[in-house]
């Protein structure tokens, strides 16, 4: 029996007892799990003393790395006062303060915060709220949702219905409410000679055609502003969002901005919508909201939406709940994250960090196997030309062997680092990624 201080002791037990997410478990017969013993800053440490640079912020959530002293202290202080109370009929200081601060930061007048536990639950909330809004406003025929080709909004059934990633969706298709998918503004899809903006305008024209014809039965359009993440960091021109906003207003269709990945500075501004100067009707946030500490999500909505539910009739209210809604520890962690943004001037400082990493990435961008090298805010992505059929697993394993946590999406390699890498860590990330690409 290996000692509990070694990886081997945990591998078989995890394989037997834990059904890991987004995983064909049989794969772990050949690609071992990585048991993590502890973490600090951008580094994860396994039980055998190896370390891994968390270059994707653990599925895009650990904005300030791991074990941040300020977030640790905030959770500790909250723990001494109140860990949790149900949010129906009760309220507490962290949820009030968080709601006020999020409303003040949000792009547009989004003063009403409804909490969930993870990204998918936020998307479910926004979809249900939009549908129910139209019903309360005597427009029960508005039940359809428009989503964008290759978009990703989560994997519960409602969220999956507006997701267009075949690997996640196809098996469950018979269970899903049929929606309308419109072409993606993804700049990589631009015709030869066309600019990213031209392509985005073309996609917006296709959206216009759908809304013009079918708006009477459409409740909402849902978008991932500026970057379609899970499909492979597809970046697009902000003009698409500006047009989408105009069209939604013109055709009486809600605009749901799913900033679960793009929010919290990932695209360079606090929220990606700011770069198109638009305000959505619903804003979904999660992932970085607690800096990777505790599950929390929120949907912010407008006075207009809120007013449609405010009534003497309970059934016209939004009767949706999750047991952990507005958990006090999670809200306190989220407040500590907002304090870090304010006190460390993160939005103003990140461009300097990004410029350093971008400079270090230039040899990679110029590599003969690299296509579509792109960068926005604190996201970098590129496709690798490789004949390996198992490219993403191969790359993941090669990265681990070089102290990097990188999980390509198909042939798309991306960095979504925590906002705390120092120069040496950035150099290590750039050099070792290039080493792997060179033997792809
Ligand atoms: C844009 C977007 N929406 C929704 C989700 C779902 O979030 P969760 O995995 O927390 O359910 C994700 C997750 O990657 C996402 O990127």
Could you explain the architecture of this structure?
- With 440 residues, the protein is of the alpha/beta class.
- It has two domains: 34-67 and 347-438, Aspartate Aminotransferase, domain 1; 71-343, Type I PLP-dependent aspartate aminotransferase-like (Major domain) (Aspartate Aminotransferase, domain 2).
- 38% of the residues lie in helices and 16% in strands.
- The protein contains 15 helices and 16 strands.
- The chain has helices spanning 7-17, 57-60, 69-81, 93-105, 119-136, 157-161, 166-169, 196-214, 239-250, 303-309, 328-343, 346-360, 362-365, 391-401, 423-438; strands spanning 36-40, 43-46, 51-54, 112-116, 144-148, 180-182, 218-223, 227-228, 234-235, 254-258, 282-285, 297-301, 370-376, 379-384, 404-405, 412-415.
- The strands form four sheets. It has a seven-stranded mixed sheet with strand order 4-12-11-10-7-5-6, with helices on both faces.
- Helix 4 crosses helix 11 and helix 8 runs parallel beside helix 9.
- The longest helix is centred in the middle third of the chain and has 19 residues, at 196-214.
- The two termini are 37 Å apart.
- The mean pLDDT is 97.
- Bound molecules: pyridoxal-5'-phosphate.
- Pyridoxal-5'-phosphate is lined by residues 118-120, 123, 152-154, 224, 229-230, 258, 260-261, 286.
Helix content: 25-40%
Bound molecules: pyridoxal-5'-phosphate
Total count of domains: 2
Cα end-to-end separation: 37 Å
Structural class call reads: alpha/beta
């Amino acid at each position: 029996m290996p000692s509990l201080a070694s990886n081997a002791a945990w591998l078989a037990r995890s394989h037997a007892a834990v059904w890991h997410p987004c995983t064909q478990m049989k794969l772990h017969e050949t690609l071992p799990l990585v048991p993590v013993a502890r973490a600090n800053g951008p580094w994860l440490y396994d039980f055998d003393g190896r370390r891994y640079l968390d270059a994707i912020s653990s599925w895009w959530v650990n904005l300030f790395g791991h074990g941040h002293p300020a977030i640790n202290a905030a959770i500790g202080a909250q723990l001494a006062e109140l860990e949790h109370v149900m949010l129906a009929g009760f309220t507490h200081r962290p949820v009030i303060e968080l709601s006020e601060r999020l409303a003040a930061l949000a792009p547009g007048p989004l003063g009403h915060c409804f909490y969930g536990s993870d990204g998918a639950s936020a998307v479910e909330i926004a979809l249900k709220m939009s549908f129910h809004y139209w019903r309360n406003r005597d427009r029960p025929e508005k039940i359809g949702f428009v989503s964008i080709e290759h978009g990703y909004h989560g994997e519960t059934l409602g969220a999956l219905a507006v997701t267009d990633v075949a690997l996640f969706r196809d098996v469950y298709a018979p269970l899903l409410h049929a929606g309308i998918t419109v072409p993606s503004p993804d700049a990589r899809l631009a015709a030869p000679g066309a600019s990213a903006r031209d392509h985005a305008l073309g996609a917006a024209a296709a959206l216009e055609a759908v809304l013009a014809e079918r708006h009477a039965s459409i409740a909402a359009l849902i978008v991932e502003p500026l970057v379609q993440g899970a499909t492979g960091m597809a970046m697009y021109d902000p003009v698409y969002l500006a047009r989408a906003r105009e069209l939604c207003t013109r055709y009486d269709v809600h605009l749901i901005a799913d900033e679960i990945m793009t929010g919290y500075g990932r695209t360079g501004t606090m929220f990606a919508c700011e770069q198109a100067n638009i305000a959505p009707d619903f804003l979904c946030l999660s992932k970085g909201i607690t800096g990777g500490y505790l599950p929390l999500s929120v949907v912010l909505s407008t006075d207009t939406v809120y007013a449609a539910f405010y009534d003497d009739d309970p059934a016209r209210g939004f009767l949706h709940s999750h047991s952990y809604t507005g958990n006090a520890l999670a809200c306190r962690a989220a407040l500590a994250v907002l304090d870090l943004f304010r006190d460390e001037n993160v939005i103003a400082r990140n461009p300097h960090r990004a410029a350093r990493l971008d400079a270090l990435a230039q040899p990679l961008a110029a590599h003969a196997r690299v296509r579509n090298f792109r960068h926005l805010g604190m996201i970098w992505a590129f496709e690798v030309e490789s004949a390996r059929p198992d490219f993403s697993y191969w790359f993941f394993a090669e990265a681990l062997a070089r102290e990097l946590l990188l999980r390509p999406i198909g042939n798309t390699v991306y960095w979504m680092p925590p906002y705390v890498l120092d120069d040496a860590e950035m150099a290590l990330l750039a050099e070792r990624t290039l080493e792997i690409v060179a033997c792809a």
